[in-house]
Structure prediction request, 679 residues.
Amino acid sequence: MFGVDVGGTFTDVVAIRDGRVEVTKVPSSRVDPAGSVVEGARRLGVAGSPVFNHASTMGLNAVLERRLPKIGFLATEGFRDILDRGTIHRPLDAQTDPAWRRTFGDVSRPLVPRYLRRGIRERKTARGETLFPLDEAQARHELEILGRTGVQGIAICLINAYVDPEHELRLAELVHEVLPGVEVSISSATSPLAKEYERASTTVIDVIMKLLFSDYAKQLDSELGALGFDGQLNFADCAANLLPWEEALERPFRILFAGPAAGTVSSGHLGRVIGRQHLLCADVGGTSTDVSIIVDGKPFVQNTFEIEHDLIINALSTEVSSVGAGGGSLVTVGTSGGLLVGPGSAGAEPGPACYGRGGTQPTVTDAVLLMGVLDPNGFAGGEFQLDASASEAAFLALDTPVPYDERIRTTYRLAVAHMAEEILNVAVRHGVDIRDFSLMAYGAAGGMLLPAALDLLPLKEVIVPPNPGLFSAIGLLSTDQVYYESESAYVVFGADTAEGIAAVYDRMEARLRERLGPVATGLPVRRSFDGRLVGQGWEIPFVQLPDGPVTAESLSAVIAAFHDAYEARNGNRFDAFPVEGVTYRVEIVVPAEKVDYALAAETEPFAATPEGTLTLSHVAAEPVQAEWYSRERLTTGATVVGPAVIREQLSTTYIPPGQQAVVGRVGEIVITQRKEGAK
Prediction:
């Protein structure tokens, strides 16, 4: 089995054969991202693998950086500015700022410039009736205009098309007639849900992803085949569910990003094995730290998510919160002369100053190298040497009165503080007691930086998993293939509406089983809905339906399930209020083979034998003597007392003073604060 996580800095590739984990890292290429994936597959030998599971943030990065293809947008006449409107929600700093605009609506950063948004004469009512027929002559004229601008794709979102898609379907046919070869996405197929703005933004992102991923996926499939791979190429979606690549490209907005979600899945899988049900998960990469949460063994999944403020995508996704602090975060000087860390990043090219690739600004990685934590000869599996003198020159060049020694120490502490703040924010947002939670620290820099968060947060412990630098890629080998259909209909639940609700579920299930064919035979369907109390403007998502058909007799159990979910989320219960369903969902899960963590026999803790000693600088006022260990030689029960450094092929774990680490039964490193009086 193969898993690959394409990040902004490195492409992580994992292969599992006969229970052995083989790993490699390849610098990510913007010019040829598929080439980085193929190179990793070549190094590990992909021939004969049954699956190749792929996750990427390529689409998300393209949207955030506005590296976008030119597309047109067709809306009902009078609604072409719907993308600028967004929802009514504004951030606090915009409440009193009349000049504030959403970044994706601003003329300098539009998803679709206004001249490429065209109004089409037509109108369907909320009941699906035709108020104004589609004016095909006018539609052809608008498409001809867009054709002369050189658009590569067209997104179509008409009012009430989720009720009756007739006009959208005909418009798509006209696009193929007038602009052959141009990609098309229609909202009624992409996201057949209520709320026209969310449908519009999702459809725009969908056609953008088609243009970004179509050639990429075909190139990847072809070049992997040339290496002897004849298995199934899967793409992960925003909830880390796997889809065959052809299936994923039918609605590619779902694969906008997947790496952070895969890390959460990987954390949950390992947590179940080692008995940790409450986890805060932190993936520390080169550019950012992605934080998520697992409660009672389950990640928090949402039915929509934001790319930028108010840029909403209707897709199932693991809730991930990011902060611009990572190994490659740049160190700069503020207006008062103090140091700042992030959110800017050196990326892979040119990278931190110590990479020797042209970077001149100091980064967090440069600071940790100068502290003595990183081995300059063993970085990234020894692919290249780190240049400590370049790091020193970069810090010395900073225009600040802060002393040199303090510059390095402050960089390290600020980076950890930014990450700890985001971890705390996630815990507070979910209303959990952080003292009950373990922190799963992964990503290449997770073990290097996050144990220090124990000095700032009352966490239960920090866990550094096996192969932390490729832990998200491993998560792709710990998940299933999940297929789903969703549909919107505003229905107040009652005995007289049970038949209509059942018909919605039956229709979606039939559509889903037809799409999947024989693979779905014998597999059960999971049903859920997003509902609300009548009169409310927001929904409770993912209310699970009890087993059995929806009938007038069983509907009381469905309503009770909603009130149970409402109470669990809000702490109140209003059984007397009627329930209104908004969005309905069916899922079929196709189980996949998963990573098998073998539990070693329990053993009493014992003092680990160090490989050698080293001197840590800039950690305290005076240099500190520490021991270093090879992770591959640490067995279950081995105990390491900080300050200490644990090295492995693609990552480094730093145990600060006052902490200790014990190796667990699957090789995980469990780090805690040392108790008073402990030896």
Observations:
- The domain at 2-63+214-255 is CATH 3.30.420.40 (Nucleotidyltransferase; domain 5).
- Residues 196-226 form the longest helix (31 residues).
